[in-house]
């Protein structure tokens, strides 16, 4: 879903809930990695936040992070970080 915003983003994301458990107080923090050489843009973060709200019905706070700052894995990357 976030990959639809390419080439502005790399497609890597991490959800960072502030507390353990299923129920979370909104907004849910989500880090979205920018594509190589791209700069953070408030309108891009807002567009991603709106897309997540419309498709997943969840209130998020989208933080755009620099390319390469989210951990990669050879097999599967973790989408949830505590």
Structure, explained:
- This protein has one domain.
- The protein is 18% helix and 24% strand.
- It has one helix and three strands.
- It is α+β, with helices and mostly antiparallel strands and 82 residues long.
- The protein is globular.
- It has a three-stranded mixed β-sheet with strand order 1-2-3, covered by helices on one side.
- The model has no long low-confidence stretch (mean pLDDT 90).
What secondary-structure arrangement, pairings included, does this model have?
Elements: E1 9-15, E2 28-34, H1 42-56, E3 60-65
Parallel strand pairs: 2-3
Antiparallel strand pairs: 1-2
Summarize the structure.
The chain has 82 residues and is α+β, with helices and mostly antiparallel strands. Helix content is 18%, strand content 24%. It has one domain.
Number of helices: 1
Sequence of secondary-structure elements: EEHE
Q: What's the domain count? A: 1
Strand order of the largest sheet: 1-2-3
User: How many strand segments?
Assistant: 3
Q: What would you report as the Rg, rounded to the nearest angstrom? A: 12 Å
As a percent range, the share of strand residues is: 15-25%
